[in-house]
Amino acid sequence: MGNKAGQAMTEYRLYFLDRNGKIASTVAFDALDDADAMISANILSGACADGHHGYERWCENRRVRTARGDGNPPTISLRQLTQTRQRQILGLEETLQRSRLHIARSKRLLEATATLRQLVASR
Predict the structure, then answer these.
(1) Does the CA dihedral 116-89-45-16 come out positive or negative?
(2) Residues contacting residue 58 through CB under 8 Å, at least 6 positions apart
(3) End-to-end CA gap in the chain
(4) Is residue 34 within 8 Å of 59, Cβ to Cβ?
(5) Strands, E, within 2-91: which ranges?
(6) Going by C-beta distance under 8 Å and a sequence separation of 6 or more, which residues neighbour residue 68?
């Protein structure tokens, strides 16, 4: 899973929702297509599930998906991702941690980032 040479990437945005369905935090990332973006969204959503009540995934002005709760559990393990994709997810998790938004206080996010950091370092 990752960018194949010569394929164009598209920017997606993941909006994490508060209990009232309002946007509480956001992160932008690149993906090959909606299916590829779903993998990133599910991993990120699961990594900080204790810090949000759902999410919306957007591509430009098109809402791709809305999920209440923590969305769907990841359908792929971190070990199945390419090293490049693992680094991308790690960078996004670290960006969320550095933000001054509510989601940065997620304990699950801290744990998920530490686990992914170890995985990336071991490769």
Answers:
(1) positive
(2) 12, 13, 14, 15, 64
(3) 16
(4) yes
(5) 10-17, 23-31, 54-59, 62-68
(6) 17, 53, 54
pLDDT (tens digit per residue) in 53-109: 999 999 999 999 888 875 555 667 888 888 999 999 999 999 999 998 889 999 999
DSSP 2: -
User: Is the per-residue pLDDT at 3 higher than 70?
Assistant: no
**DSSP designation for 75:** S
d(CA 42, CA 45): 5
Decide if 28 contacts 60 (C-beta within 8 A): no
Arithmetic mean of pLDDT over the chain:
88
Position 30: which residue type? D
